[in-house]
Structures are given as C-alpha cells and as structure tokens.
Specification:
Elements: H1 11-21, H2 30-43, E1 52-56, H3 62-70, E2 75-80, H4 83-90, E3 100-104, E4 117-123, H5 132-142, E5 143-154, H6 160-167, H7 181-190, E6 193-207, H8 210-220, H9 236-246, E7 255-268, H10 275-278, E8 288-289
Parallel strand pairs: 1-2, 1-4, 2-3, 3-8, 4-5
Antiparallel strand pairs: 5-7, 6-7
Length: 290
C-alpha cells in the first residue's frame, strides 16, 4: 500500500478475477454471507425510509435481495465491477415487476446521478479500491443529503498468517494489503460524511490445509491484484515451501485464516457537485454497462 488510503491494485486484474469467479462464487462465499448478515442486522438499529438503494459491489445479489425484502417499496440498484457477477444476479430475478436494477461500474467512477439514493450499502467491496477517498467522495455524491452509507470492508490483519507464510518464500507481495479502520473513519469525515461509527472484529476460519484456503480465495475471485506482484510461474518447490511455512500456525489440527472485518456507517452531509458537473450522468437504467 502506497499510503493509508491508496493501494497499488491492478483494477483490470480485480475485474477479470471476479468475472472468472462469478459462476462458482456462491459455493465459496460462506464468510461473505455471514458478514453480510451481520451488516444487515445493523440496519435494524437505524430508523429510516428508503425508496432508492445502491448496493456497491453487489456480486451475485445476496445483499440486494435482502435489502429489497427489508425495504419493500425501494428500488435497488446492483453495482459491480464484474459484468458476469451481475449476469448471475439477474438470472435469479423475476423478469417482470422486479425492483432490482443493474449497472456495471467502478465505485471510484460511477455514472450515476447525484443525490439519487437514500441508502448505499456495500459488503466487502471497498477493499478493492485503489483510492478510498475517491470511493467515499463518489458515494457521498450519489447519496441524498442525510442519506446513509453502511459498509463492511477488510482490515490490515486479514489473512496475516498467509501473508507471513508467503514472506518466508517470496520477496514479492502475494496477499493484498487492506485499509486501516481509523484511516477509513477519517476519510469519511474528509469526504462529506458526518457522525461516522466504526467497529472491527476478527473472524477465524479454519482449514485442513493451505491449499483449501487458496482454493476458496480463488473461487471468490480474491486473487493477488497488486501491481508489483510476481508475474512468473510459481513452482511446486515454492508451493511446498509455502505449505511448510504455514504449518507453524496449526492449532488443534487446523490452520487458521484470520479476517479483520470492519463495519462502518455514516450520514451524507449534502451534494458535492453542481448540476453542470453532473451533466452527462444518467439516472437508474436497467442492466446498463458503463
């Protein structure tokens, strides 16, 4: 990570990995669904009416469908960087009278009208931003004044065991770096939000072996997307060395994989662009690619 709020991610690689993983994503996304439920539970603590909702990084639509069930009069826009994810989500929707809409776009540059949404929800997608300030500024822009952002993301202790094991084998990064909770909270205030609330918890997922962990990560599309990553082939000898390095973390015959999960919410203060600056952006359209 080049700074507290900027990462050295290859966004084209991020999008390509999620495109490839879309068809099998749900079979590996048990942790993502658990974190989504915990985030959705936090909405029960907030009294608000929502007629328009954007789900940023919507994936195959798990959270979007839950949001539509909770806010039965709301239109829900699913936004994802991977076209194939949206196709998977759309295949599970009724074609007529659906309140789900779909746009393929990057949260750091969304062609959506300012002030269009009462609620922006994002589960485990903001860690794939190159510039968190840019992402928060865009989200603040599309929220109406007093609109709510509720999100989850991953903190820097995520996959620390795998990161340390890789460091024993290779000098180049093999595990993505993640934003710190306090930096994220400061970024909210700096980009037009008020009353931020930030929380963090650690969840440990146990595996029989490191290959199973890596298989899950690949199945999710959560591959190494660092610009300075190694482009070379990784041979069996190095893979064996990784397996050996990870073994030092084995407890009760299981290998732990730590996830630092950050929960945050804040309220938008007001619009950040003029009508002239907003010209050329479009309102909700059904299944649009940008």
């Amino acid at each position: 990570m080049s700074s507290g709020l900027k990462s050295c991610l290859d966004k084209r690689r991020v999008a390509a990995a999620f495109e490839k993983a879309a068809a099998r994503y749900d079979s590996h996304a048990f942790l993502q669904r658990e974190i989504a439920e915990r985030a959705l539970d936090r909405l029960s603590l907030v009294t608000m009416e929502a007629s328009s909702i954007a789900d940023i990084g919507s994936g195959t639509g798990y959270c979007a469908r839950a949001l539509a069930s909770r806010y039965r009069k709301a239109k829900v826009l699913q936004c994802d960087i991977a076209w194939a994810m949206l196709e998977e989500a759309r295949s599970r929707e009724r074609r007529f009278f659906s309140r789900q809409h779909f746009v393929c776009c990057d949260v750091e540059r969304m062609a959506l009208k300012s002030g269009a949404f009462d609620l922006v929800f994002s589960n485990l997608s903001l860690q794939w931003c190159r510039d968190l300030n840019c992402a928060f500024l865009e989200i603040q822009r599309i929220l109406r004044p007093d609109g709510l952002l509720l999100f989850t993301t991953l903190g820097p202790d995520t996959l620390k065991e795998l990161r340390f094991a890789w460091a024993e084998v290779s000098d180049t990064p093999h595990v993505n770096q993640f934003f710190d909770m306090h930096d994220a909270g400061d970024a909210l205030v700096a980009n037009g939000f008020t009353a931020p609330v930030m929380e963090a918890e650690r969840i440990t997922v146990n595996y029989d072996d490191v290959i199973s962990l890596m298989r899950d990560l690949k199945g999710l599309g959560a591959t190494n997307a660092a610009l300075e990553r190694s482009r070379g082939l990784f041979g069996k000898r190095n893979l064996g060395a990784l397996v050996d390095a990870y073994e030092v973390y084995r407890v009760d015959d299981k290998l732990p994989a730590t996830y630092e999960v950050i929960y945050g919410h804040a309220w938008a203060i007001g619009p950040s662009v003029s009508q002239e600056q907003d010209a050329g952006r479009y309102p909700l359209k059904r299944f649009t690619r940008t």
